[in-house]
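Our preliminary data section would be incomplete without showing what the modeling component actually yields. Below, a chain of 120 amino acids is followed by its predicted structure, encoded as tokens that our downstream tools consume directly.
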Amino acid sequence: QVQLVEFGGGLVQSGGSLRLSCVASGKIFDIYTMAWYRQAPGKQRELVAIVSKDGTLAYADSAKGRFTISRDNTKNTVYLEMNSLKFEDTAVYYCNADVLTSITQLTNYWGQGTQVTVSS
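Predicted structure:
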């Protein structure tokens, strides 16, 4: 069993910054792709940013130039640095990871989510 736990959400004013962290723990053989998604009220969950094990990055258009995803493979942790936050960034942010729990078993996991609220 693998757990993903997010940290760092909260209330911030428009234009402010937040840093989210997500730590993976449990039966981990290796971690491949790690990503951040978000879901605003009444909307579908959407990809924000993704980082592969070798460090390849990709961002949603809404995140480009403002958000930075990074990971520390020694700590099984992925980060999301969010700057110049806007009201429309308000959402629950979820961590996601493809985890190898044995040499042959690859499973996708989700964190429980952390609320980010940006006041206008």
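The CA atoms of residues 85 and 93 lie 14 Å apart. The two ends are 40 Å apart (CA to CA). Preliminary results of this kind motivate Aim 1 of the renewal.
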